[in-house]
Amino acid sequence: MLAAESLVKAFGGLQVIQGMSLRLGRGELLGLIGPNGAGKTTMFNLLAGTLRPSSGVVRLDGADVTPLSQQGRFGRGLSRSFQIPKPFSRMTVLENVMTSAQGQVGENVLSALFQLGSVAAQERANGTRARELLDFVSLSHLEDQPASVLSGGQRKLLELARVLMTQPKVILLDEPAAGVNPTLLDLIIDRIAEINKLGIAVLLIEHNMDMIARLCPRVVVMAAGQLLAEGAPEEVTQRADVIEVYLEGMPT
């Protein structure tokens, strides 16, 4: 579903990504790990379309999407979450999810003026779908509350619901465990697994190795902007070179 081929990203004279390749299969749940400074976030942004590579190719569902912006890739079924979710704080939790619905008739001025019935019908359908997703992430009891009342973990769950509202084929998740308490973390892990069971391919960047081990049959390890290792979590985390780069990245 998603492939990076020999990606290079340079900022001035510094190459942050150096010929990195990665493949995410249809319906796969893949973990991307590495020590601080490995280039994971830059790689994530190259896949999402936030950054353009200096060279190399990104393919989505077989098509070359390298020239496309984040919005262009979004329109082809690639959605992403953010490490620090930023919901519309004054809007309700339900309204936040509904804003992610695509192809809304009411966004067109003429349609909003002259197709009131269609706009209202679509709005009702979007509301129904949004409520189903809030139930899926266990936030139904907060649907009428402003998003500002949500805890950090609840905002991560809201982010999952908003992503699902776009009906994606591929989801890029940026550290969904960061800043989340253990109780909500178990729920987030369970929901990600359920999302993947729907056939949606998921690429997960995460520092929480327990989460990676529980969710990802395969992981890719980056170091210094390059591929270091890939395989099952229990295998790659026992490799001497992987242990060495993680130890080097630890403060002394």
Structural key phrases:
252 residues, alpha/beta, Rossmann fold, six-stranded mixed beta sheet, four-stranded antiparallel beta sheet, 10 strands, 38% helix, 23% strand
Tell me what the structure shows.
- The protein folds into 2 domains: 2-87 and 166-248, 3-Layer(aba) Sandwich (Rossmann fold); 88-149, no CATH class.
- It is an alpha/beta fold.
- It is 38% helix and 23% strand.
- The chain has helices at 40-48, 70-74, 93-98, 109-114, 116-136, 152-165, 182-197, 209-215, 233-236, 240-248; strands at residues 2-11, 14-24, 29-33, 55-60, 63-64, 78-80, 170-174, 201-205, 218-223, 226-231.
- A 6-stranded mixed sheet has the order 6-7-8-3-9-10, with helices on both faces. It has a 4-stranded antiparallel sheet with strand order 2-1-4-5, covered by helices on one side.
Bin the helical content. 25-40%
How many strands, what sense, and barrel or not for the largest sheet?
6 strands, mixed
Task: Write the CATH architecture name of the largest domain.
Answer: 3-Layer(aba) Sandwich
Shape designation: globular
Q: What's the count of strands?
A: 10
N-to-C CA distance:
40 Å
What would the average pLDDT be, to the nearest integer? 91
Number of helices: 10
Rg over alpha carbons = 19 Å
The helix-strand sequence is EEEHEEHEHHHHEHEHEEHH
Assembly annotation: single chain
Structural class label: alpha/beta
**CATH superfamily label of the largest domain:** P-loop containing nucleotide triphosphate hydrolases
Low-confidence stretches: none
Strand content: 15-25%
> Strands across the major sheet, in which order?
6-7-8-3-9-10
Tally of separate domains: 2
CATH class of the largest domain: Alpha Beta
